[in-house]
């Protein structure tokens, strides 16, 4: 059943239809009325691949809509950000990546600045190389199957950007924000 839903969703996303200006989904699937602002003590940066900025299936945009304090930065091949451009004074920078170190126990959310890489898996692999010096590369305890069906997941244990943030919120004890 999931495959059928996935193909149906993708066919609607790929067709040229009138879209909501805010969520970028077809108007009949607009999610804006159900969105609400979520308070969060984490500092959040979404480093977005240029191709991701126009994809209606981008969950990086969703993060900014529900967490307006989050910042979006557009990654570009020819304009690299430095660690100084990204870091937030008084906070430890964590770049979420599946090949990072295990998340420390008992994190204090008010002391964390998280950088999320937003793009297709091949795009974020390239972006990850630019973030090595920004802070600690952290791997989250992410299990299960992605619930994000607007894009095909080529392999198991691959999650969308917003799902990674949800795992982080829960791991930091921020259950209400994660829900």
Defining traits:
alpha/beta, 179 residues, five-stranded parallel β-sheet, globular
Q: Would you write up a description of this structure?
A:
28% of the residues lie in helices and 18% in strands. It is built from six helices and five strands. A five-stranded parallel beta sheet has the order 2-1-4-3-5. Helix 2 (59-66) links the parallel strand 1 (43-48) and strand 2 (71-74). The longest helix is centred in the first third of the chain and has 13 residues, at 2-14.
Quick description:
Helix content is 28%, strand content 18%. The protein is built from six helices and five strands, in the order H-E-H-E-H-E-E-H-E-H-H.
What is the fold's blueprint, element by element?
Blueprint (H helix, E strand, L loop, with lengths): L1 H13 L28 E6 L10 H8 L4 E4 L8 H4 L5 E11 L9 E7 L2 H10 L5 E4 L21 H11 L3 H4 L1
């Amino acid at each position: 059943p999931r495959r059928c839903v996935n193909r149906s969703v993708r066919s609607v996303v790929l067709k040229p239809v009138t879209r909501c200006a805010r969520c970028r989904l077809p108007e009949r699937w607009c999610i804006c009325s159900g969105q609400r602002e979520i308070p969060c003590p984490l500092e959040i940066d979404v480093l977005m691949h240029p191709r991701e900025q126009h994809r209606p299936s981008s969950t990086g945009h969703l993060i900014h809509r529900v967490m307006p304090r989050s910042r979006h930065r557009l990654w570009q091949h020819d304009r690299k950000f430095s660690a100084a451009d990204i870091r937030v004074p008084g906070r430890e920078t964590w770049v979420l990546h599946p090949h990072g170190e295990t998340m420390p126990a008992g994190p204090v959310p008010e002391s964390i600045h998280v950088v999320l890489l937003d793009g297709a898996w091949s795009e974020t692999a390239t972006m990850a190389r630019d973030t090595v010096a920004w802070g600690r590369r952290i791997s989250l305890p992410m299990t299960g199957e992605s619930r994000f069906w607007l894009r095909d997941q080529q392999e198991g244990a691959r999650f969308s950007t917003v799902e990674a943030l949800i795992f982080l919120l829960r791991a930091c004890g921020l259950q209400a924000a994660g829900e």
